[in-house]
User: What shape does this take?
Amino acid sequence: MTTVFQPPPRARARRRLGARLTRWIASLIVLVLAALLVHSVVTNGNFEWGVVGQYFTSSVVISGLVRTLWLTGIAMAIGIVLGVVVAIMRLSSSPLLAGGGTLYTTFFRGTPVLVQIIFWFNLSFLYPRLGLGIPFGPTAVSVSANSLITPTMAALLGLGLNEGAYMSEIVRAGIQSVPRGQTEAALAIGMTGPRVLRRVVLPQALRLALPPTGNEVIGMLKVTAVVSVIGMPDLLFSVEGIYNRTLQVIPLLVVASIWYIIATTVLYVGQRQIERRYGRGFAAVAPMAQGRPFRRALARLQP
Assistant: This one.
């Protein structure tokens, strides 16, 4: 019989008191630093808070914010659809499909998203005209690449295709975290492979992939700022246009930063609500154990 050593009551009381003092001191330090930061920001006239208030709700800034949110939503929709398709390809028993999925993720994860956006925007240098027709045969429809690849189209292609590579890894980790026995049981009762994937595997995989997907949405909102380099009038491009005329760089950047913080906070709250809704009945049974296979599968995918 093993005896567990318990420290004397007085020693335990000293430890608890020491822990409380440590928390109080750390909290006091954080509070003082936060107060100093707020005081410095509020009293520093170089921030020009009057200019911030003037342009915060201007029509140009609001229009750029709406376009940023729209671009985030469309690019994430493209990324999620591509992510599911590429994840299934990479898990396929066909070497051709698995190799194609691997090549896709390697390319789009291995190059910066800014480079990809600029590449799509300048696609006309490689292909002046884009056509649709019979492979290796006559072309039925042909259009100018300059008229087709607008700044909006280049931004959607760059962001959506890049996000598809990252989402494929998240979805693949979610699929691999689903116990193999569930798939075998579904096949044993007569369900077809595609039906098992659609009814059994993907619902569980996507539920486990929901938290990292929410993080990807928040990250996408901030990454959209890079489209300003190709002239798409998003939030950052809109404030750049204003401070290029007024030379009030800092206050306009503060305006953009505040709107980005507001948008990401709203997305974070929405993410938490969605996780609670779709996690009902799932996290009640061994919540830590439910996420372990997914975390192990996701850790194996890290470079």
Remarks:
- The chain has a mean pLDDT of 84.
